[in-house]
Each structure stands twice: as structure tokens, then as C-alpha cells.
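Show me a record, fold above all:
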Amino acid sequence: PRASWDTFRTVYPLLSLAYPKKLGELLEGWLNAYRAGGWLPKWASPGYRDSMVGTFADVVLSDAIIKNISGFDVDMAWEALRKDAFDSSSDPKDTSRGKFGLQHYKDRGYIPVDVKIGEACSRTLDFAYADAATAMAAERLGKGEVARELRQRSERGLRELYDPRTGLMGHKQANGAFKNEPAETWGDCFTEGSAWHHSFPPFNLKVLTELHGGSQKLIAKLRELFTTPGDFNVGSYKVEIHEMREMRMLGLGQYAHNNQPVHHLPFLFALLGDRNATARMVRRILSSAYSPEGFAGDEDNGEMGSWYVLSALGLFAPSPGVSADYMLASMPLFRRVHLRALDIVIEAPAASQEAPLVTEVFWRSQPVKGVLVPYQTLQVGGTLHFQAPGDKKLNRVVSSLRGALHGAIKKARGAVRKVRGATTAFEHSPSLQEDLGLGPPSAAVEDGQLSIVTGAALVASLVFCGLAAKRFIGP
């Protein structure tokens, strides 16, 4: 994925779940670009290109650091992150390397719209996001002083740009006053969108909620976004571009799913306490913005497709780089999925319903508190079971049985590996279908090494099933 402005939002979080080893190799490739050119690329094509604002490669690397992804040079990554955070290009006219306008951002807390720096509002918010993510990486690496400085800088950017008159991020001038501009105006201060699309960044929801006067007022503003007619002013674009037209055609108000800056917005409802709103909205977008004929906008380096896959799995990362958590706020699109890399089984008996809600989620047979699960928890492997209103308790019993069987076989396989020693033949990660003899046999099964422990696991699981049935169904 060449463009981190697009891909940091969904492509890399998906790679963390599905291909973590390949992700490390990919990140090392970006570091090779840094070694060769002295800066992390913002939009590699193949060299440095000033296509989009922000330094979201910072977010990608920070996300990998806080998730403890292996396979890349962490020391080199930190060197690159620190350079993006504090240094400017030696050429004052070079907008393709680092943060163009960084000095204004450091001095004022924002980039004014009247200092001849384009897309100033988006730059401010994107710099603030990168700062928040780099602060997390710094904290993880034991660089507390740098983390505090960047966190303060990031928070200031949000506070400086928020216009309390409109409840949106505003066009702030060098004298501190906000320029009056309709919220539906595209361009000028914002990148490929309007104030509606860029005013709800996810990297500091606590401060954003405070600025709006509480979670309920922020929820109300988000509802206003989804219900305000999809009208637009062409602004600095001068002509209607396809992104404007696609937003209006989707029919979700000012929500422009055809463009990346809004892709986390449906999930903010759940983070603010309204999980059902997220569940309904995500299912609606899955059905209306995607079809076998195409998407509601450009694919953009795999980002649009990755949003679909994550949402279809019921796992979404609302703020990559700042948090390693994934959300469990919407019902998966499939009744059962197995993520082989992390050995996660996702079950959703109500997946086929038109608009299923989520009443509870169970991880390894235990209820998940809240709507977030850490990546480090998912790395352990297990069964993730989504419960909907009206689901039969027997579904839980069957899920617990499968989870117990899966876990027992996984432990048995680990024991055999430990005895025999690690070999390339045992790097194969079999699916649950293989564990149950429903798919191609793994090397361990072919060798007959697990027949006894698998039988023991089955017996233990049957006992567990009886206990679970007694607990959940009753005598």
C-alpha cells in the first residue's frame, strides 16, 4: 500500500490481524525508503510526492510498535518518527517531505488559513493525529518526555481549531479569529472534503467530547452529520468532483463513505455509549456502499475493501497508532470465520439477519466488558462469539464446546512441538476444520502424533459441554 493517508485507517489494521508477519516485512520496506531518502514517504510513487497532507506513515509505524509487531527495525523506526515530529525539510518550498507548515503548528498550535499554506485545517488535524500516535510509540519505548511534549502538542491542535459557534473544526486565521465559511464547503482548508468530514478525529475522543460539552451533545452532532442533506459547495475545487457527487448519491447526509476521513465515524457512537447505532449504521453501509458491481468510491490502495472486511469480521480499529484496541460494536457478516494467523474463530449466529444488534460479546467463553478488545488479547487466540437479541443459549454452549476443543488441541500441538523441537513442518497453522478432520490434514495429524491428546481433548470438551449446558440452560 503506497499511500498511508488512505491505508493507515484500515489496511494496516487488517494486516495486523490477518498477516502480521508480512506486515513487519512491509514496514521494513518503508524504512528502506527512509534510509535511501532521509524521510518517510507520504505518497510513494515511487519516490517522494506531495499528493496528500499529513505524515501518516508515523501512525503506521507507531501502531506496529504499540502492537509489538516483529520483523522491522524499531530503532530505525523511532529515528524516522522523531524526525517527522521535530524537523523540517532543508528546502522551505519542499512540501513532499515531513510536515510542511510545522513551525506554525509548533508556535501557534495550528496552521492559519491565511499564511499561504494550503489545506491548513487538515494539516493541523493530521499533524495532531501523527503527534498522538508518535507519543504512544515514544511512551512504549521509554521516552516519556518526548511523549508528553507530543501529546500536549496534539491536544492543543484540537482545541485551537474547534469553533464553538458551529461545533465543527473551523477556518482559523493568524489573528485567532475564525473565518465564516459554510460547513458544506469543500477544499480550501480541508483535504478532499468539508468541515463535516474532518471535525471528528478519533485520536483524542476525551478532548473532543469535552469540547462538545459531553457525550450526548457529541452524539447529537454526529446524528446531525448523518441527517443533514448531502448538499455541497465546490469551494476551492471550482468544479464538482466525483467525490462530491458520490457522497450525495449514497444518501447518508454529509457522510461521505467514498472518502477515507469519515470511515471511523459510525464507530464513534459505540465509543460514546450507543452500540446499537453503530451496529445499524455499519450494516447499512455494508449493504448500500458495496456491491458486486463496485464500491461507493475509489478503492484507494485497498482501504475501501479493508473497511468492508474489518466490518464484516466485526472487528474495527477506530484509532490506529493511538490505541491497539479493536471494536466489537457491530455484528459480523458471516456466521463463522477463522483468522489463521492469530488463530481466532469469530462466531455470529445472527449474522444473516438484516440489521442484527449486538447484546454481548464473549471472548474465550468470558463476557467482554465494553466494546473494545486489545490486540494483545487477540494475539492469544480463541473464540469470539457475538450474541444478538433472541439468540438461543444453546449457541453459547456450542461455542464454548468449540472453544474448549480448539484450545485443547492447540495446547496439545504446542506440547508435541516442544518435545520434537520447532521445525518448518510445524509452522503450518491449521484451521479448526482441520483440527476436527474436516479439511486437509496437517503434518502433525498425518504423523499420528495428536490422536491420543485429541481424543483426550474431546472427552474433556464433552464434560465441559455438560457443565456448560447445566449452567446456561438449566436442569
Observations:
- The CA atoms of residues 67 and 138 lie 13 Å apart.
